[in-house]
């Protein structure tokens, strides 16, 4: 059983690159990263600072990623944060998998598609 608190940051790029230091400093969590896509523009990739993370994981599939992270930590992370837009679909899947639900999973697309967002506002 894990005693430390762990926070996972999915795609910690751009403004999300500052989250690791803030989470460690303000909340005392150990921070891990998950990279879902290494084929982003160089300007985006250059913002990633791997030295700030206890471990950096690469996304392959939901099942493999969950198993790898849980094996490493001794369970699911305590917190999950999405660092940048490219990671949102995987972030939503992981939130649902680990029951860390900051958003309603079924409305995932509506958070990014303005037409669907407007339709939800009319419900």
Could you describe the 3D structure shown?
With 123 residues, the protein is α/β, with parallel strands linked by helices. It has a single domain (6-122), classed as Rossmann fold, CATH 3.40.50. The chain has 5 helices and 4 strands, in the order E-H-E-H-E-H-E-H-H. It has helices spanning 19-27, 42-45, 62-73, 88-98, 114-122, and strands at residues 6-10, 30-35, 56-58, 79-82. The protein has a 4-stranded parallel beta sheet. The longest helix is centred in the middle third of the chain and has 12 residues, at 62-73. The radius of gyration is 15 Å and the shape is globular.
Shape: globular
Strand-pairing-aware structural class: alpha/beta
Strand percent estimate: 5-15%
Indicate the CATH class: Alpha Beta
In DSSP terms (H or I, runs of 4 or more residues), the helix count works out at 5
What is the CATH architecture descriptor? 3-Layer(aba) Sandwich
> Radius of gyration from the CA trace?
15 Å
Give the distance, in angstroms, between the N- and C-terminal Cα atoms: 43 Å
What letter string, H or E per element, gives the SSE order?
EHEHEHEHH
Instruction: List how many beta strands DSSP finds.
Output: 4
Sheet having the most strands: 4 strands, parallel
Overall helicity: 25-40%
> Could you please say which CATH topology applies here?
Rossmann fold
- Calculate the mean pLDDT score and round it: 89
Low-confidence stretches: none
Strand order, largest beta sheet: 3-2-1-4
Total tally of structural domains: 1
């Amino acid at each position: 059983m894990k005693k430390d608190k762990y926070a996972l940051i999915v795609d910690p790029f751009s403004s999300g690159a500052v989250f690791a230091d803030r989470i460690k400093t303000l909340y005392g969590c150990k921070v891990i990263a998950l990279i879902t896509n290494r084929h982003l523009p160089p300007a985006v990739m250059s913002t990633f600072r791997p030295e700030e993370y206890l471990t950096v994981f690469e996304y392959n599939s939901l099942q493999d990623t969950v198993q790898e992270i849980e094996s490493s930590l001794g369970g699911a992370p305590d917190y999950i944060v999405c660092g940048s837009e490219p990671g949102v679909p995987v972030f939503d899947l992981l939130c649902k998998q680990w029951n860390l639900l900051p958003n309603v999973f079924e409305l995932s697309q509506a958070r990014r598609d303005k037409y669907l967002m407007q339709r939800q506002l009319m419900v």
